[in-house]
Structures are given as C-alpha cells and as structure tokens.
Design brief:
Layout lengths: L2 H12 L20 H8 L3 H8 L8 H10 L4 H14 L20 H9 L5 E4 L5 E4 L1 H6 L13 H7 L1 H6 L3 H16 L6 H13 L1 H8 L8 E8 L3 E12 L5 E7 L5 H17 L15
Antiparallel strand pairs: 1-2, 1-5, 3-4, 4-5
Helix pairs in contact: 1-5, 2-3, 2-4, 4-5, 8-10, 11-12
C-alpha cells in the first residue's frame, strides 16, 4: 500500500453519494463512495482505481488525478496534497532523497533571529521540518513555555500541543487546535515522506495519544497559512490572537509563525502586559542581539 492509495481511500470514505449527485440505494457495507462510483465520476476504469489504491500504478497522470480530485470534491489544500503524494509514489531514482539533511538540526540565521527579537509585542517562532521549533523570541517563550529548558526532541509545536500539559492547557478549544495541527503535519509530511524524524514523531504521538492516533488515520490535510486561536494564559488571561506563517526564503525549510492582536483590543493590551511581565521575569530589556534560539545542538 502507498500513501496515495491510503489517501484516496480516506477521501472516498468521507464522501456521501448524495454529495456528488448519486442516488443512495441499498445498504452500504462501508461508508462513502464505492470504487465503481468514483471511477464513473472521474471517467476512469474501476480496475485503475483499484490499482491506484493498492499502489500498483507507478505514475498517475495529472489529468487523471485532477479528475479524481474533482470527483472527490477536494479543496485546494487537499488537491495539493494529492499531487504531492502522487509524485512521491513515482519512485524514480532522479528524485532527491527526502532524507537529505534529516540528521542535522538546522540553525536559525542571525538576521532571522534579529528579526524575531525585534518583535517586542509579537510572539514569534521559527519552525522547521514537521513543525520543529528552531528559534523563538522572548514573547514566544512568554506565550507558550521556556523552550530553552526543553530537550531538543521536545521542541516541536505538535509534540507540545499534545504532550506538554501546560501548553495543552493554553488553548481554549484544544480539540480544534490539535486536529488542525495534525492536518498541518500530514500536509507537510508529503514533502518528506521517508524522513526518520517524521516517523519517530508520528510513532511517539500515536503511542502516547489516542486522539492523535485517530486523527492521523483520517488523512485530513491543511496548509498552515493563517487563522485565529484563543488562548487562556495563566498570566495574561484571555488572548484572541491571529496567526500567520511566513516562509523564510533560501531553501532553508524554515518558516516564521507569529501571533498578533487587533490594535486597541483587550488582547493587544494583554500582549503588552505579557511583554512587560516577560521583561521583568528575565530582568533585562528586549535586546535583539540577545540570542533566544536553540544553541544546544
């Protein structure tokens, strides 16, 4: 079996016949569309759908994948994921190995760290592959936790969301945030399907958290771009924060996750209060030259 086949079956199971204009007749043994129905909607043979789901098609054409995506009502992020996993299923020797660089923990460049540290009232994190936390500013640590006290293998956004009690308790709607995190990780994993660090992370979370295990099997995908989260911070109180993800260009596989509040809102005032609290706690004023990135590896 392949990730492409697993994904097609999961998407097929989520679609009701009525959703795509087909009559629902008789009792169905399994939820979702039958293979015959998907094949008819996409204009391909049933045998081809079977071979795709069983991983016996070496390379599916973009036109066929697009037809399948249309039949399954896939959204843009889901379509992007489908194309990625289909590309990975084409096992050509010319494709660069996704294991390249997997054994080295990336560093945050000094200019990027200066940018983070200059954001006095904006919590910001630098994320690497699979949502590893590679760097942070004082406000990022104040909002979540002191990342510098954690072992490097625990400095991962999704690991903390599921397995760190204090971070988990920060979210007012933990289930929504956690499910989105799984979808982000699944989306990102399509780029590096054979990365051993990914396998270790997914394995640990699957063993230790039943919710993660269930949601991972659902194959929901979503690109991490922007949204809103509500925090219940033990010091600053309620924080309604918008987040956005900015790509760090240059082939670094890094992005900046930052949180902002609407100007003049109570959340903006709470962020200002949190900034002052963090400064008093550290006993220093914000200094963009002061390193707050991972220097232990």
């Amino acid at each position: 079996m392949t990730e492409l086949g697993d994904y097609l079956r999961a998407c097929r199971a989520r679609i009701n016949a009525e959703d795509v204009g087909l009559p629902s007749t008789g009792r169905r043994r399994v939820p979702g569309l039958r293979r015959e129905e998907l094949a008819s909607l996409a204009g391909v043979s049933v045998d081809y759908v079977v071979r795709l789901e069983q991983g016996r098609v070496r390379s599916a054409s973009p036109s066929v994948l697009t037809a399948l995506a249309r039949a399954l009502n896939l959204q843009p992020d889901e379509y992007e994921y489908l194309m990625r996993v289909a590309e990975e299923s084409d096992t050509t020797d010319s494709r660069p190995s996704s294991r390249a660089g997997a054994g080295r923990r990336p560093r945050v460049s000094p200019p990027t760290q200066v940018l983070l540290s200059s954001m006095v009232n904006v919590p910001a994190l630098v994320l690497g592959r699979h949502m590893d936390i590679l760097g942070w500013n004082r406000m990022g640590a104040a909002l979540f936790t002191d990342f510098g006290t954690l072992p490097p293998n625990q400095r991962n956004h999704i690991w903390l969301t599921f397995l760190h009690p204090r971070v988990r308790a920060l979210y007012q709607d933990w289930h929504k945030v956690a499910r989105e995190c799984v979808a982000y990780l699944r989306m990102n994993a399509a780029r590096y399907p054979d990365d051993p660090a990914l396998a270790q992370l997914v394995g640990e979370l699957s063993l230790r958290d039943a919710d993660f295990r269930t949601w991972w099997s659902h194959h929901q995908v979503r690109a991490q771009r922007q949204g809103r989260k509500v925090f219940r911070h033990p010091v600053a109180g309620r924080l309604d924060l918008d987040f956005q993800v900015l790509e760090v260009r240059g082939g670094t596989d890094q992005s900046i996750l930052l949180y902002t509040a609407e100007p003049g809102s109570s959340s903006a005032e709470a962020l200002t209060f949190l900034s002052g609290w963090a400064t008093d706690r550290d006993g220093t004023t914000a200094d963009p030259r002061r390193p707050t990135r991972d220097t232990s590896s």
